[in-house]
Hints:
heterodimer; A: about 190 residues; alpha+beta; 8-stranded antiparallel β-sheet; 3-stranded antiparallel β-sheet; 11 strands; about 25% helix; globular; B: about 375 residues; mainly alpha; Serine Threonine Protein Phosphatase 5, Tetratricopeptide repeat; about 5% strand; elongated
Amino acid sequence: xxxxxxxxxxxxxxxxxAGCGGVTLIDPAKPQVLGDMTVMxxxxxxxxxxxxxxWTVNGPNLDSLHFFAGVKSGQPLFTPFGARKDQMAVxxxxxLPNDVQxxxxxxxxxxxxxxxxxxxxAPCPFGSATGxxxxxAFTSPDGLEMKGLVTASKRDASLDLVEFVAPSEYYYGELSxxxxxxxxSIQTK
Amino acid sequence: MRRILAGTLVSLLxxxxxxxxxxxxxxxxxxxxxMKSDEAGMWMQVDKLEADIKASPARIRDEKLNxxxxxxxxxxxxxxxxxxxxxxxxxxxxxxxxxxxxxMVVWSGLLLRSENEAQLAFVLGHEITHxxxxxxxxxxxxxxNTSGFVAVFSIITAGAGVGLIGLAANAAxxxxxxxxxxDQERDADAGGFAAATAYGYDPGQAPAIWxxxxxxxxxxxxxxxxxFFATHPEPEERLAAMQKxxxxxxxxxxxxxxxxxxxxxxxxxxxxxxxxxxxxxxxPLEGVVLFERLSxxxxxxxxxxxxxxxxxxxxxxxxxxxxxxxxxxxxLDCADAPPQAWRGLGLLAMKDGDKAEAKEDFTQYRAKAxxxxxxxxxxxYLTQL
Lengths: 189, 385
């Protein structure tokens, strides 16, 4: 645990240095409320905010779990650093899961990721509702091969979406079982 | 052949009679700059960038495709062929770049957008001229004189060490260094034009490819991914000059080549993937312009008609839905009809509330693509209809 705490301090310092202020540690046993979603963290994460909540264990370049809660019609999932809001594809309440998948792919491309390939779009439980999920494969701006997992649900004309991305070498395999448990723990109001 | 080679080199090196300073002409093949020179410093930086490009997972290593493009480069560069190292990269935007050290990067977006070998030859010839006339060195020295060494160093390193894709992401910063002047662009246009027409490539294809790309860029008010034009300014003026020159050159002989069959043979195995890359880029405003053109150019290719349908559906402007449906139907009339055209029709019908039509379309999609990776989602849609 001492080692883990040291790692957390290093990650937190790294996040602060990267300009991600307000890093907090997430208690693995305490349910976390993110918009209308409540999730069980499973493990200790570092949390910081941009225009949405992000959790990471090893730093955002190595693993990141993004919570997009209550995205309304006409809004982008988020606006990456250096991009303008009007350049981003936006959510539309009429979107079907295939369209939301395209929205995620287009948003990742705007972040500088390349050759984003979604796959295995399927209905998935999202709290007590039927949502949908899919996976991702893409290349990072640094040329790293990356993988991702997404789960989402559309209700009352808004979108709740959780996205996990990490380099396919080591970090994705290390954390994806935990992320799947986080996804399975989602409860909605 | 030897006469053509000699003619090409003479054209490339001398087509630029208007150049103010010929001291930048590339020394003979095998040249490396003096280690104490500013040029050596620039090469050192781009060597790092080249190492990233070489190891990038986005690099297309297919021997046949590389041999085809390399053959074209060698034809146009003559004896400088051995100084140029080609890297074909799977990056969907239109771009080609020859770095100061001879690393030539060709993005798949250029190959997707070219209709024939002649169009590709004019673009490659243009880039080879930038290299042979050391425009980057000239530009760097100009920036040093106006901005100082620190600014130049930071601009170079903005691109180095972050891979090709990082280079694309930092295009605005790198473009500040590599953006060529209007004179350099005219010079590269002239050199590329002379080299390609010396091999009998149809002069009209030179303005055609630039016109196509300008139309795509102009369709997108954000111009965010117009990487090529970040480093190649003043397209309208150059286009007009090129059209005038092409008309004059065309009249000089009866037959010109486009080598369309050889080009299609080389790129055919990759088109499905490159179209998927372009669609994933999330720029449907540009995609509509691109795939309207490619569909018109190859009316029997269902892949381009399907991509047009996808671009229209994703653009989702007023009146796009029926146009998208028409494009999907046209795709399905082609021999290479992608099954995903049925999915596109189903999604349009489902959104339109036409359950019977959506059910029919999704059923067709499932039948034509039984192993589609979104089959579970489509089956779920079918339970809702």
